[in-house]
Design goal:
Helix content: 25-40%
CATH architecture of the largest domain: 3-Layer(aba) Sandwich
Distance between the termini: 44 Å
Number of helices: 9
Strand content: 25-35%
Order of helices and strands: HHEEEEEEEHEHEEEHEHEEHEHEEH
Radius of gyration: 21 Å
Largest sheet: 8 strands, mixed
Number of strands: 17
Structural class: alpha+beta
Shape: globular
CATH class of the largest domain: Alpha Beta
Oligomer: single chain
CATH topology of the largest domain: Aminopeptidase
Number of domains: 2
């Protein structure tokens, strides 16, 4: 295992806690706890975004955003036989759902279920060739129909059940998207003391269903500069050409140049690069051909804002085995903290 400096137990707590879009309550409680210990003011808006503010010596403000929600499901029907059918909250590839254990979050507590997978030798050729879709997924609750309908209701939330563990030089589990970046933001907040500018650390909601929390928050905060944190693709695995890797685990934090929703401000990403060089922090450039982040939410809501983004390279996104390199996590925390500590409000980001 590679050396790392961060609090693994807090990362484990964040990733293993459930929180789908619009229902981030359990994660929000952890965030508020951490913000209350390390920021000057904590507030929550009507959508559920949480902001921890560290007051600076000037009116200039920087917003840092990482989203709390993970992809999950909502129960849309419980069959007479006791199986729950699902509606997706966020972008799922139905192929990865087979033979997975889930948690159904009911008003009376969490209920375990499994998404079964029939033995392959019992399937017809037609069944083998059928395309997997979320609408065809059934959760086996281990209950008869009547008991299942009394226990689980339409509208109950469903998340994948998985632990977060160390694996070689990596950490792996569910919901690293985006809890590993939420974690990096919380860790950086601990390091910021007496900044020249006011820093708003924002834990946003509903990113996985359209950047909704960040877009609303961008209006409320009206920052002078916004930096978003999110995971990014690391396709550095067998089956991909080097040009399609996007990022590579172990090569450092990602400085975003573009994704499917935003082209970052060149002066912002160059200053991120310069800070990384000065502090001897490992980094790599990220050019993500598809997919969006909260970066765009701030740019779209309150006029022309300079925006940048820092990314944690992550393999196997939107599965229960998302994996990141511990040294990349450290580098992300280091770069964010160093960037904020050196922000004076006097850097010219206009183009």
């Amino acid at each position: 295992m590679a050396d790392y400096d961060f609090d693994f137990e807090l990362l484990k707590e964040l990733t293993e806690t459930s929180g789908v879009p619009g229902y981030e309550d359990r994660v929000r409680d952890i965030v508020r706890r951490e913000f209350e210990a390390h920021t000057d003011e904590v507030r929550t808006d009507a959508m559920g975004n949480v902001v921890g503010t560290i007051e600076g010596d000037s009116d200039y403000s920087v917003a840092v955003a990482a989203h709390m929600d993970e992809i999950g499901f909502m129960v849309r029907h419980v069959t007479d036989e006791g199986f729950a059918q699902l509606d997706a909250l966020g972008g799922w590839d139905a192929r990865v759902l087979k033979a997975q254990r889930v948690q159904v979050h009911t008003e009376d507590g969490d209920v375990t279920g499994v998404i079964g997978s029939p033995p392959p030798h019992t399937l017809s050729e037609e069944q083998k060739e059928k395309k997997d879709e979320v609408k065809d997924v059934y959760v086996d609750l281990g209950l008869d129909g009547e008991t299942a309908r009394e226990t689980v209701s339409v509208g109950d939330l469903v998340t994948m059940e998985q632990t977060t563990v160390e694996m070689g030089d990596h950490v792996t589990g569910k919901a690293l998207d985006d809890r590993v970046c939420l974690f990096a933001m919380l860790e950086a907040a601990k390091r910021i003391e007496d900044p020249d500018v006011t820093v708003h650390f924002a834990a946003t909601v509903q990113e996985e269903v359209g950047l909704r929390g960040a877009e609303a928050l961008g209006v409320d905060l009206d920052p002078d500069l916004a930096i978003a944190l999110d995971v990014t693709v690391a396709n550095d695995v067998p089956g991909f050409e080097a040009g399609d890797h996007v990022t590579k685990l172990g090569d450092g934090t990602g400085i975003k140049l573009k994704d499917g929703s935003v082209i970052t401000n060149p002066k912002v990403h160059r200053r991120l690069r310069d800070v990384a060089d000065e502090e001897d922090i490992e980094y790599q450039y990220e050019i993500l051909p598809a997919g969006g982040t909260d970066t765009a939410g701030f740019q779209n809501t309150h006029g022309a804002k300079p925006v940048g983004a820092i990314s944690v390279p992550t393999r196997y996104l939107h599965t229960v085995t998302e994996s990141a390199h511990v040294e990349d996590v450290d580098a992300t925390i280091d770069l964010l903290a160093a960037f904020l500590a050196t922000e004076t409000g006097e850097h010219d980001y206009t183009l």
